[in-house]
Amino acid sequence: MDDAAVLKRRGYIMGINLGEGSYAKVKSAYSERLKFNVAVKIIDRRKAPTDFLEKFLPREIEILAMLNHRSIVKTYEIFETSDGKVYIIMELGVQGDLLEFIKTRGALHEDDARKKFHQLSSAVKYCHDLDVVHRDLKCENLLLDKDFNIKLSDFGFSKRCLRDDGGRIMLSKTFCGSAAYAAPEVLQGIPYQPKVYDIWSLGVILYIMVCGSMPYDDSNIKKMLRIQKEHRVNFPRSKHLTGECKDLIYRMLQPDVSRRLHIDEILSHCWVQQVKPKTQPSASTTKEGESSRGTQDTLKVPESNVEKKSATKVEEKEEPKQDANTEKEESVQVTRQSEILGFNADQPATESEQGKLSPPTETVHT
């Protein structure tokens, strides 16, 4: 029985193709019970790799079934057929994803970005409070409903955090996600704190929202890591961002994991709350237009061991020493995205007619 017939028997009239991969595809469908359109993710077990079937798919199904938040895509139904196909019926992002929205319309005004970022941060806090981490936060996974509200989607790399006997969250060693959104510790193959990884990705997303371009160029991972570990963040001067907005981004894109913001600190930040701070926390600007946080020490981190083999994926190198608080997992390919929106690293971004990307003229660093 083909997909259309299977869905028809369950009360869904299959529509257009929304996306397709090697072992999964997403279709639109009309639900006769719900009386509106939905998205249907169809996974073919016969074509899927073993690690996906044994680890990632069970996790995704378990987590989707437990999530219930207004800024997370709703899951209406999950069922499987005898021929090994899994059907996940989900809320449809009728306005597409945030990446396409920004590519079409350009950078968001800070007020619009604040609203959308607050919705996203609230969804991440909800997950983190449940000890669930997403690990693939990126603009493509942020869908927009009919009113352009954020709906967090694609929990394919998500997991429940494990805790040791002392109640501490164990470090993770599954290196997954997209390189442009991945934290330095993940790119280096260092066992990482999964919730802290999500925060870095939030910083990249907010930067893209307000700048309309990528903060780092991931075509050269080693070079990108050096810039990240120096805590350099380039802001296009033409965007006229407020100091509070730049401060929040800068604190999320913190290479020192012990100093990176937590989700509660993000939600209480003066920019998110739209409250003027009593004391200005944002970076001060010099005459040359280069900003620096003089109150912070320069962060010195050893050079990365990432080789120049490929700019398109990060592989786990020689396995780090395992300790009691580290969960052992294999590496997962990380994809390159620097050419999607352009970047603000060492060379100017290109310009498009609809969404202009400005060259980096203002730098924040430690």
Question: Which secondary structure elements does this structure contain, and how are they paired or packed?
Answer:
Elements: H1 3-9, E1 12-20, E2 24-31, E3 36-44, H2 50-66, E4 75-80, E5 85-91, H3 98-105, H4 110-129, E6 132-133, E7 142-144, E8 150-152, E9 159-160, E10 177-178, H5 184-187, H6 194-211, H7 221-229, E11 233-235, H8 243-252, H9 263-267, H10 270-273, E12 284-285, E13 291-292, E14 334-335, H11 338-341, E15 362-365
Parallel strand pairs: 10-14, 13-15
Antiparallel strand pairs: 1-2, 2-3, 3-5, 4-5, 6-9, 7-8, 11-15, 12-13
* Number of helical regions: 11
**CATH A-level architecture of the largest domain:** Orthogonal Bundle
Number of domains: 2
The CATH topology annotation of the largest domain reads as Transferase(Phosphotransferase), domain 1
Q: Main β-sheet: number of strands, strand sense, barrel status?
A: 5 strands, antiparallel
Give the low-confidence spans.
Answer: 281-322, 329-340, 342-366
SSE string, helices as H and strands as E: HEEEHEEHHEEEEEHHHEHHHEEEHE
Strand order of the largest sheet: 1-2-3-5-4
Q: What's the CATH class of the largest domain, please?
A: Mainly Alpha
Task: Find the structural class using helix and strand composition.
Answer: alpha+beta
Number of strands: 15
CATH superfamily of the largest domain: Transferase(Phosphotransferase) domain 1
Rg calculated over all Cα atoms: 21 Å
Ends distance = 60 Å
**Outline:** globular
**What fraction of residues sit in β-strands?**
15-25%
Region (Disordered): 277-366
Keywords: ATP-binding, Cytoplasm, Developmental protein, Differentiation, Kinase, Magnesium, Metal-binding, Nucleotide-binding, Phosphoprotein, Serine/threonine-protein kinase, Spermatogenesis, Transferase, Ubl conjugation
EC number: 2.7.11.1
Family: Belongs to the protein kinase superfamily. CAMK Ser/Thr protein kinase family.
